[in-house]
Design the sequence.
């Protein structure tokens, strides 16, 4: 595994070995550690001294279930502190297959510009992306798939990220190529936009540098882990039926909702936005759509 460092001020790309203290870290732990080590606490989140770190989890690229989370870490333009935001999609698996422990994006162009980072088995390149100016994530994905192939992963920012709006997210494409998975917290999209980057294309092709010490034992452990996930009432029945919002009521009962900027752990109207309520609302809409329309014949 290696770390790729991209300097957007000079358009230079370098690679480095993973530091011993980083070997056992992945995802959130790694992105936050790098930001802590390399970004001055008084630097402006949208300035040249901030950095954006992209890192898959420790188990990305292998056969383990739920191993495809991607973490993006930076100094947040919303909070001014270290922020990690994560998403699903195919980016983490693709980066791990190419042998990347992390991608560190630093500095920023001297002039306003839009760039595309392309990461493949042949290396990393920076290309002009002015043709994507002020396009939304769906349009960006469609254009880039037409240009670079249908099976690529795309990480991108929409108009908000280009404009450095502080709540902007980074979209990550799902297995169907839709930009539906978002690093949505902390304003990571604004930071990517401040680096002059519109999108990142990742294409591992047939490459897979993930190695197993004992693949048979790993497969057995992965199967057992998968069975335990499916057997749990929340992850096995609740999440597939109600989605992530099934956790709203659970967290509310535990006093863990960040209500009123974390001043309270419970939200009075949690039931109204719970997964169960949304499920019932969707079912009622479907039933209404299935009801036959009353057609009054024209007898004039």
Sequence:
């Amino acid at each position: 595994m290696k770390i790729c460092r991209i300097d957007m001020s000079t358009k230079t790309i370098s690679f480095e070995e993973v530091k011993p203290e980083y070997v056992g870290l992945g995802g959130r732990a790694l992105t936050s550690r790098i930001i802590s080590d390399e970004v001055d606490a008084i630097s402006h989140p949208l300035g040249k001294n901030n950095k954006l770190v992209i890192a898959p989890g420790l188990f990305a690229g292998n056969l383990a279930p739920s191993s495809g989370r991607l973490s993006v870490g930076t100094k947040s333009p919303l909070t001014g502190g270290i922020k990690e935001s994560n998403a699903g999609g195919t980016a983490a698996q693709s980066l791990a297959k190419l042998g990347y422990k992390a991608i560190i994006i630093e500095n920023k162009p001297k002039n306003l510009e839009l760039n595309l980072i392309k990461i493949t088995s042949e290396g990393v390149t920076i290309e002009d992306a002015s043709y994507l100016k002020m396009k939304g994530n769906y349009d960006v994905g469609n254009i880039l798939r037409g240009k670079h192939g249908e099976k690529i992963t795309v990480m991108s920012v929409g108009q908000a990220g280009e404009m450095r709006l502080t709540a902007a997210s980074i979209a990550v494409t799902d297995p169907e190529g839709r930009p539906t998975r978002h690093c949505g917290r902390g304003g990571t999209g604004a930071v990517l936009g401040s680096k002059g980057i519109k999108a990142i294309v990742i294409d591992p092709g047939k490459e897979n540098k993930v190695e197993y010490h004992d693949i048979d034992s790993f497969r057995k452990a992965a199967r057992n882990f998968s069975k335990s996930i499916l057997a749990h009432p929340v992850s096995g029945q609740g999440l597939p039926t109600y989605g992530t919002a099934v956790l709203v009521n659970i967290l509310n009962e535990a006093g863990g909702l960040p209500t009123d900027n974390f001043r309270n752990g419970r939200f009075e109207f949690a039931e109204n936005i719970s997964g169960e309520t949304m499920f019932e609302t969707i079912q009622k809409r479907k039933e209404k759509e299935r009801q036959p329309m009353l057609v009054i014949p024209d007898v004039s």
Observations:
- The mean pLDDT is 93.
- The radius of gyration is 22 Å.
